[in-house]
Design brief:
alpha/beta; EreA/ChaN-like  fold; nine-stranded mixed sheet; two-stranded antiparallel sheet
Length: about 425
């Protein structure tokens, strides 16, 4: 371990003892219009709680009006309608049942209940155009988004309905199984690209003719965009991991930009995604592999002063994850961080929660690449030294870092599925 890094952390970090300590980050965010809030896992309570507190203050104190998350657009629309008063469902936990695709615990958890309950209360006091929105900008909901497009075109008697049905009929042989379509398109050359891209072009050209409201216009466009980009993603998935990764993150930025355009000049967005998406890829070994991500693209597309990125991490604790894709979630132990890693350096600098703000004066002190732990929805703690650490120049990857010395697993709504 580089002792100078530990010393620099000690000199420049601040103890994080209460929510008021977040004042420092709010001050540094300043007039930024896009704030990206990461997480080192999809199953850690503290990340969700701190992001909730930061989001509440950004909305109340700085006029932010969008939360965009690493989630499906159709399921997230259930939250958006609920918090804006367009859904009479009484219980926020019922709203979160819309998240049916594995891993459901990412959004169907008690920590998100707290967030959307606050958003509904906040919006109840605001005029329609001042309400904050909640949007999922991920790419996975191919079939769900296609169904949403069909349903809307049917309900509005759109002349584009038959074209949409014809485009989507191309996918029927795959029984709503993305993997089956991926194999067919990637290996056999039997894809639906022409049909789905043509439909997206038609909807974009005609959306104002049949959308009953501006929000419905956005919903229709993004669902069509998801269908087109998801088709591209699954087609690439079987042959090129790097290409499919880029398609996914490029889609998330495209969807994000569509939402911001919908909100107009007053748009100010908070993005909730994993560190691997929001932390600038150019500061990691992802760049060498030809990969990009949301953080990099957003920085490239916007003035420097408009974007602020916050990373998160922990030294040890517990987490919700699964040992294999699609199987039951578990509460797992997160072992002490690997020696020589960034989290280990933070722990050695002080075994308590910390905030570290990077700026022009101290960035050069944190320019040594260090392994930075990343836990996904699939996690095997006993093997994490072989693939869970991303070499990172931390002061270039983020503008600030929030360190939790010992973290706790979040609380999924479906506790019956969890082996505790």
């Amino acid at each position: 371990m580089n002792e100078s890094v530990i010393q620099s952390i000690q000199e420049h970090s601040k103890a994080y003892k209460s929510e008021r300590d977040l004042d420092k980050i709010l001050q540094e965010i300043g007039d930024s219009r896009i704030v990206l809030l990461g997480e080192a896992s999809h199953g850690t309570s503290e990340y969700y709680k701190i992001r909730t507190e930061l989001s509440k203050r950004l909305i109340e104190e700085k006029g932010f009006n969008i939360i965009a998350v690493e989630g499906d657009w159709p399921a997230s629309q259930s939250i958006n309608k609920y918090i804006k008063g367009n859904d009479e469902t009484a219980n926020p936990r019922d709203v979160l049942q819309s998240f049916k695709r594995w891993p459901t615990w990412m959004w169907a958890n008690e920590e998100v209940v707290e967030l959307i309950s606050w958003l509904k209360e906040y919006n109840a006091k605001k005029a329609s155009k001042q309400k904050a929105g909640f949007y999922g900008i991920d790419v996975y909901s191919l079939w769900e988004s296609m169904e949403e497009v069909i349903l809307y075109l049917e309900n509005t008697n759109s002349p584009d309905l038959e074209k949409a049905k014809k485009a989507f009929s191309c996918f029927e042989p795959f029984n709503k199984e993305p993997q089956e379509y991926a194999v067919s398109a990637g290996y056999l050359g039997e894809d639906c690209t022409e049909e789905i891209v043509g439909l997206l072009s038609t909807i974009r050209a005609n959306k104002k003719d049949f959308a009953e409201s501006h929000e419905q216009e956005l919903n229709l466009e993004v669902n069509a965009m998801v269908a087109a980009n998801a088709e591209h993603y699954y087609r690439a998935m079987v042959s090129n991991d790097e290409k499919s990764w880029n398609i996914r993150d490029e889609h998330m930025v495209e969807a994000l930009n569509a939402v911001m355009k919908f909100y107009g000049e007053e748009a100010k967005v908070i993005v909730w995604e994993h560190n691997t998406h929001v932390g600038d890829a150019r500061a990691t070994d992802m760049m060498e592999a030809g990969m990009t991500n949301v953080g990099q693209i957003v920085r490239e597309q916007n003035p420097k002063e408009d974007v602020y990125i916050v990373g998160f991490g922990t030294h040890r604790g517990t987490v919700i994850a699964s040992k294999e894709w699609g199987v039951n979630l578990e509460k797992m132990e997160v072992p002490p961080a690997q020696r020589g890693s960034w989290e280990d350096a933070m722990h050695q600098a002080g075994n308590y929660n910390q905030l570290l703000l990077f700026n022009d004066e101290n960035r050069k002190l944190f320019h040594s690449p260090l392994g930075h732990r990343a836990i996904g929805v699939v996690y095997r703690p006993q093997y994490e030294q072989y693939g869970n650490y991303v070499p990172s120049i931390m002061s270039e990857r983020y503008d600030a870092f929030i360190y939790i010395d010992e973290s706790n697993a979040l609380q999924p709504l479906e506790l019956s599925d969890v082996r505790l």
